Amino acid sequence: MKETDILAPLTIELQKVCSLGGNMSIVVVPEKYADRALGYTRDVDTALKYQEYLIIGLFGMEADEAATLFLSIPKGIAVYPQDGKDIKTLFFGAMERLRVKGTSPWAKRLWETINESNAMERQPDPENRFISASFYQFLSTLVSHPEELSRIMADMNDTEQHWVRDYLPYGLGSTLNNAGGCEGLDVSVLFEEWQYREKTAHKLETGKKTLRKFRNIEHLFTLPSISREIIDVARDPLLAASKMARIIERDPVLTSRLLKVVNSAFYGFHRQIDSVEHAIVILGNDEVVNLAFSIAIYKILETISPCHAQRLWEHSLIVAHLSQWLGPLLGYKSKDKIYTVGLLHDFGKIVFLQRGHYISDIDTPSSLQDLAQEEKDSGLSHAEMGAYIAERWNLPEGIVDALVSHHLPGKAKDKALAVTIHVADIIAHNGKIDMSQLNNAAVRFLSQRKGPPISQELVCRTYEKVTERVKKVSDIEDGA
Ligand SMILES: [Fe+2]
Ligand SMILES: [Fe+2]
């Protein structure tokens, strides 16, 4: 039998709609959901089975209404007259939409509204990438409604569950496992009451304002030109020490600060090191490049109160050094970005401090609730703000991506890099890996990694060593 014959009952219904005027939705549902879908249909609707699908014609219904009716069921919807004027076109349109969505339930579509790539596609304006990268207020609401969240997730397959969990903190696991499907729970009510749409709109508006204001004070945050050159040359592993030394020595303040650090107890050399080239020969290119970059970038911290600057500086250095140690253990092989990302990961906080915006406590790791609070105040969190600055500095995309996702590492293009920074941040705050403060994606990444286990004892020892050394360097810079 041809499709047109099978679809004949629907064609008759559509003819009625055509003559009366109005809408009709054609909904295609996979067979395994047929019984549930039929339970939601009304007497006036027409349903028929075709291969492994159920096709339903809904009288006088728009797509939104149809989507709400079959809230928790995977489906494709096409609407007369917008999507087509005959049943065959509408049927194939609905099939197409179902295939695009695969077997994803509606909730995944909702999650996708906060997905970065989606946001980028919808909004070609590059600034929107940073404003729409996350929606922490929504995430923290879901976390505070574990029952609803688990019901949404109950209908998802493993891949989709991972996809959602990657947004969440570790430790929700057991609560999320034992719930039934969405039946009996109209999750849309939760979002309606929470005012999802209004809050997103407000976030976007506030975020735009914050970035606009930032551009007015951007001159305070220019990347010292020497840092730009240092980043560029650092990518060349075969660069001669003399060339690198010549770049650094063009800045006398930087050179003297660098030599002061190199000759400090931090490195413990007996002989005096009196030139940058000498330092490079002894310490190696990477170490000197990182040191020079840190010292050059310190200038930006002078825009905020010395007390905040000192705490943030020490934290940034500790995360940078810990990341360098942790990266190779987590499978991040390349050395060129890790120190820079570690150093800059919380630089968005400087802008917020400078502008008097809310930021979470510098001395504790940012929870989802903290990030939501920042976002409420500024339209974006310090992670997105920092990534925006890096983008304005034309830093490599890998750095920008890792900065924006350092609290949601599962969303990063380079997961090993983002997880490294995320875990190093937690170690820097706690002196150990505190699982309860990690993001779920990071825990999954750690559990899947190969190689010898990283003992808590080793983490604590490394933390102490790094902290002690960083304190020496930051004291010197403070007094320099
Ligand atoms: Fe952060
Ligand atoms: Fe941090």
Taking the sheet with the most strands, its summary is:
4 strands, antiparallel
Instruction: From the 3D structure, determine the CATH topology of the largest domain.
Output: Hypothetical protein af1432
Question: For the record, what is the CATH homologous superfamily label of the largest domain?
Answer: Hypothetical protein af1432
- CATH class value of the largest domain: Mainly Alpha
CATH architectural arrangement of the largest domain = Orthogonal Bundle
Helical content, roughly?
A: 55-70%
Distance, first to last CA: 86 Å
Radius of gyration: 28 Å
The geometry reads as elongated
Catalogue the ligands: fe (ii) ion
Stretches where pLDDT is under 50 for at least 5 consecutive residues are 102-110, 113-122
Structurally, the number of domains stands at 2
Tally of helical runs: 28
Mean pLDDT: 83
The fraction of residues in strands falls at 5-15%
Task: Please state the structural category.
Answer: mainly alpha
Strands of the widest sheet, in order across it, are 2-3-1-4
DSSP strand tally: 4
Overview of the molecule:
This protein is mainly α and 480 residues long. It folds into two domains: 3-102, Alpha-Beta Plaits (2-Layer Sandwich), CATH 3.30.70; 220-479, Hypothetical protein af1432. Helix content is 62%, strand content 5%. Helix 20 (306-329) packs across helix 26. The radius of gyration is 28 Å and the shape is elongated.
